Structures are given as C-alpha cells and as structure tokens.
Amino acid sequence: NSRGAASLLKDSISFTDVSAAGLFEGHDLLRRGFTSVKNELLPSHPLELTEKNFQLNQDKTNFSTLRNIQGIHAPLKLQMEFRAVKQVQRLPFLHSSNMAMDILRGNDECIGFEDILNDPSQSEVMGEPHMMMEHKLGLL
C-alpha cells in the first residue's frame, strides 16, 4: 500500500530538522563571515571583564544614583549630553583629548594613567592624513 508507506515516512522524518549539510554542518563562511579565535577566548582572569567594562558600570551606577536623588530627568539629560559630545569629532589623524567628555564625567580634575603615558606626540603610529580620511569616509 503506497498510501501507508508515505504516511509512515512523513511521520518519522521531520524535514524542518534536517539542514542541507546534515548533522555535520560546518561554519558557513558566506553567512557568518570569518571566525576569530580572539572572540571565542575566555577571559584569563576573573577581573578582566570587570576592568574592561569599568566605565560602563560606573556610568550605570552614577545614573541610578542621580535618578534616585533628582528624578528621571537628570540621567536622561546627562545621557543626551554624552551623545552630543560623542558626535563631535576631530579629523581621524588629529588627536582629541575628549575634554568635554572628561568634564561631563567629572574626570577633568583627576590625573590618571592615560594622562601621563598616553601622549600623542610620543606615539609611534602616525598615519597619512589623506589615507585616514578616505578610510573613514569609506572611499578605500
């Protein structure tokens, strides 16, 4: 009976579960791009993630404290000012001190590691201005 065999086959195999490559499907380079070992590595120390997200965590804490003290308008206004300051940029080959961002965060009166050891005049990497601008505009 051909009708019985077709119904058994239809009930036993789900066509949505089977992909084109089957169970041994590899990495699809066209859809997902190149794999990067750096993205798959776990942090080498438990504090590495905390240090990497320090500024974000500090901003969240400051916003929640500001909201509890002054209300919802204060952190919203500060976030709007952060976005406005981030949109203003210099040309890619010119160093920016981000003074406006430091003032908003309250770091303008603090001397930190980056203030002493992040001097752009001592940088070993200086690109050609025309090439850097073309790269930023997507012409290269």
Protein described:
The protein is built from nine helices and no strands. The protein has a domain at 45-114 and 126-137. It has 140 residues and is mainly α. 0% of the residues are buried. Pfam families: UMP1. Belongs to the POMP/UMP1 family. Keywords: Chaperone. This is POMP protein.
Task: Give, in order, the helices and strands.
Answer: HHHHHHHHH
The helix content is: 55-70%
Calculate Rg over CA atoms.
Answer: 27 Å
Separate helix tally: 9
Low-pLDDT windows of residues: none
**What portion of residues belong to β-strands?**
under 5%
Number of DSSP E strands:
0
Features of the shown structure:
single chain; 140 residues; mainly alpha
Topology summary:
Blueprint: H1 2-12, H2 29-32, H3 37-40, H4 48-52, H5 54-70, H6 73-87, H7 99-105, H8 113-117, H9 129-137
Helix pairs in contact: 5-6
